[in-house]
Each structure stands twice: as structure tokens, then as C-alpha cells.
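Q&A log
Question type: sequence-to-structure
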Amino acid sequence: MKIKVGDLTVNRLGFGAMRVLGPDVWGPPQDRAAAHRLFRRAVELGVNFFDTADAYGPHTDEELIAEALHPYPKGLVIGTKGGCVRPSRGRWDADGRPEHLRSAVEGSLKRLKLERIDLYQLHTVDPKVKFEDSVGALAEMQRAGKIRHLGLSNVSVKQLEQARKIAPIVSVQNRYNLGDRKSDDVLKLCESLGIAFLPWYPLGAGDSLVKKKVKELAKKKDKPAAQVVIAWLLARSPVMLPIPGTSSIAHLEENVAAASLRLTPEELAALD
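Response status: OK
Response body:
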């Protein structure tokens, strides 16, 4: 199964790289070499879309990807994000100022060892900054050749439509899973426009896995609950690009196998 992200084609199951880091996505992993092995195993399994952000660590996640995979294999697409800062372990503060975003793009280019970022997403909307100014700054970086494609994260339908008046948008990354479908309206718009939709927390931070209907179907199909939930997401929309993350190679292999799991219409209806 393939999906288009702008003019790039990737497999429809990506990898969210942030789970390898310390607690609260803060600080380096306990075992840096193990994180490198995990990333390399993902590529071996056919994963060719990695999701990260400069806020993960902060900065550490991007550095780990470059350490493990650079020079990058042909066809590997790395999507990163900027516009969120981490002044301390428990904080995720929006910073959509144009000057910050320009600096963030340059920092990500350096850490990822890239001359151009394939997909750069505005991490969140900063209520203290005009949304058009944040998107406009990234559009400038795109025109300067620093960014190939632009995406958004944590946005509404209205904000997606606003951004599209400024620059082409190829992806949206919003929270979405079996138990949280508040972004259904954004997903529907993405589907109508052919924009890739990257659901974050695709397993609902584990909440989806303990739902009775999920556990029953997993038992019936003799598959891990995570595979059932990911298969549901893939069936939900043709523009869905799940990015489940893990620090375990065993769980990574289970998650990737979900791409070949097919659920019948009756099974999908039971989960709904």
C-alpha cells in the first residue's frame, strides 16, 4: 500500500520516531545504540517515512535519525516539525514567530544533515502570532529551497483552508484514533483534497488497545490488538498515513505487519 505526500510516494505505514527518547519525550534514550538499531530495522522492514520534530528531546530525535541512517537510503522521506519549544521537561510551548521558524528550519537541516527537508510541518498554532505569518514564514523557506513540501499539525478545517491560500499544503498531522475522532472533519477535507493525514497517538496512548471490541476482534483473528487498531486506521481513509512509534523492535515488527491485515466490512462496523 502506497500513499502520495506531495510528489513523494511512501508506504502507507510510517514510523513515529519520538518514542525512543527519555520519559516525556525529554532527553536522550537510555540506550543510544538500541535506538539506532530500531531505526535501521524499520528501514529494513520497508518503512520509508519517518516522523520527528525539533521539540522531541528537544533536538535529540533528529540527531538520532541522522546518526543511524545518514547517508539516507534512496526513497526515505523524513518529515519534521517546528513551532513548538521545550523550556523544561513538562512544557510544550507554541512559538510560531517567523524568526523562530526560520531558525528552527535551519537547525533541523543541520541536525538531519540535509540540504532540503522533504516535509516540514508547523507543529502547532501559536495563538500569540497571526497564523498567516507563521505559514508565510515557512512558505518563504520553501521558496528559498530549504523545504520541499509544507504540512500542518494540530489544525482546524478553517486553519487548513487559510494555509492553502498561502502555500500548497500536502499533509496534516492531528490527533486521531479509534477513541478520538474529533478531527473527522479535517480528515474528510484532506480526503477530498488528496492531502495526507498523519494521525498522532494512533493507538490512543494505548487506550484503544484495551477496548473490549478491539480485544475481541484481536482474539478472533489471533493478532495483536495494535495490529487491529492500525488496520482500522488504514481502512478508515485512503489518505491515512499512520505513524505508530515504539522503542521495541518486537512491537515495531508487529506494527509494520498491520499493513497486510485486512478487516471485513462487518469487522470494521463492529469496531465503529
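Response note: The radius of gyration is 18 Å.
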